[in-house]
């Protein structure tokens, strides 16, 4: 997100001041941000309930998920501190120390520049810099959540290695964007900086930043699709799994829309008013990602059968054999219970050794998310390639 702001420089002068509009978008900012914040809180609660209470299988990806939600909320919560309401001295002190680009009371977001008080213009640059840096950390943490989640779910050495490489690349990209963002935005703190100055460097950086995030998003979101597609499942089961992972395409679509809005938010002659869509898309983008990261693990809430309900309460006991081995009574495969099995001695984790959830249960295998054990049957010596991230 970027605003064409200044602490002291002149803005382009209107040709007819008497005809200037005096509407504002601050209500829109507060309303949309409230809805996005509510979604973040709801899905954080769902994640904690499923992974922490139902499955009792809290792992690193779950911690990263919560951290991502906290960073997203830092972009949203200050909206509520910007309303004119009678408050205690303690609350007023907290408001005075809160810094965010969505602080529509202390900042100028949503106002026409001719309606913004000079004291508001003086602090908008700090809001912008805080936003740029927090956005990078929030998006990097949600990407780490996806990668850690894939690493835990698809227990194949090649997939885990790829996820490790992508985690390192995500960390490098985040550090690079933070450093370059500080370098590009530091001129906003210069008292001599003027809004009429050249914004091409900022715009180029915004495009590069958006393109890098979009490229990594595509890689992360399509990673599980060929793996799920290779499983021998019923058509509807496979379609359901693919759909649960493919919802990440919505985050990519928001990224594209946000990229299209970059020039309007950076080069506008009325930046505080025109940048509102860019600001909202900047919050909607990681919010969409945090929702998409939670959808694949929500199967235990559906409880399509008594067996799936009983197996979704975090039990660490060995699963009994299925009494009815017919295809119609097999429990559908779900993300939290997905287990990739490979024949012993197969270091590559070939797909030929993958077992469905129901097959793993027939071999007395425990559900996904618990510690690795060896099947009791000596005739089928299988080894599970699982990460050490799980409980």
From TrEMBL:
Keyword Transport appears in the UniProt entry: no
Record's GO cellular component terms: membrane
Transmembrane annotation, as ranges: 28-50, 62-81, 127-149, 161-184, 204-227, 239-260, 280-302
Subcellular location, principal: membrane
Location within or outside the cell: Membrane
Cited InterPro entries: Rhodopsin_dom_fungi, SAT4-like
Membrane topology: Multi-pass membrane protein
Region (Disordered): 1-22, 307-336, 367-391
Family according to the record: Belongs to the SAT4 family.
Annotated protein name in UniProt: Integral membrane protein
């Amino acid at each position: 997100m970027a605003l064409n702001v200044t602490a002291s420089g002149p803005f382009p002068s209107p040709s007819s001041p008497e005809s200037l509009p005096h509407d504002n978008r601050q209500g829109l900012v507060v309303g949309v941000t409230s809805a996005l914040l509510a979604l973040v809180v709801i899905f954080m609660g769902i994640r904690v309930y499923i992974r922490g209470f139902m499955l009792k299988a809290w792992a690193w990806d779950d911690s990263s998920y919560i951290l991502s939600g906290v960073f997203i909320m830092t972009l949203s919560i200050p909206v509520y501190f910007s309303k004119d309401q009678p408050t205690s001295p303690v609350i007023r002190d907290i408001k005075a120390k809160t810094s965010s680009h969505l602080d529509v009371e202390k900042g100028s977001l949503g106002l026409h520049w001719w309606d913004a008080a000079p004291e508001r213009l003086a602090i908008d640059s700090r809001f912008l810099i805080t936003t740029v840096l927090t956005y990078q950390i929030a998006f990097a943490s949600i990407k780490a959540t996806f990668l850690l989640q894939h690493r835990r779910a698809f227990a194949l050495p090649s997939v885990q290695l790829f996820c490790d490489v992508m985690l390192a690349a995500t960390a490098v990209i985040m550090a690079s964007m933070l450093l370059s963002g500080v370098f590009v935005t530091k001129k906003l703190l210069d008292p001599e900086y003027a809004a009429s100055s050249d914004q091409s460097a900022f715009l180029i950086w915004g495009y590069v930043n958006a393109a890098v995030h979009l490229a990594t998003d595509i890689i992360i979101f399509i990673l599980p699709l060929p793996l799920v597609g290779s499983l021998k499942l019923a058509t509807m089961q496979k379609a359901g799994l693919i759909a649960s992972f493919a919802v990440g395409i919505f985050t990519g679509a928001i990224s594209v829309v946000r990229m299209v809005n970059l020039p309007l938010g950076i080069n506008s002659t009325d930046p505080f008013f025109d940048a509102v869509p860019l600001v909202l898309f900047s919050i909607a983008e990681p919010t969409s990602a945090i929702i998409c990261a939670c959808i694949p693990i929500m199967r235990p809430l559906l409880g399509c059968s008594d067996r799936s309900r009983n197996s979704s309460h975090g039990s660490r006991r060995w699963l009994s054999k299925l009494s009815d081995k017919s295809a119609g009574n097999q429990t559908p495969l779900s993300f939290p219970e997905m287990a990739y099995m490979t024949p012993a001695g197969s270091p590559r984790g070939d797909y030929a050794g993958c077992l469905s959830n129901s097959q793993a249960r027939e071999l007395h295998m425990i559900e996904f998310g618990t510690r690795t054990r060896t099947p009791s049957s000596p005739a089928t010596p299988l080894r599970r390639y699982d990460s050490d991230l799980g409980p």
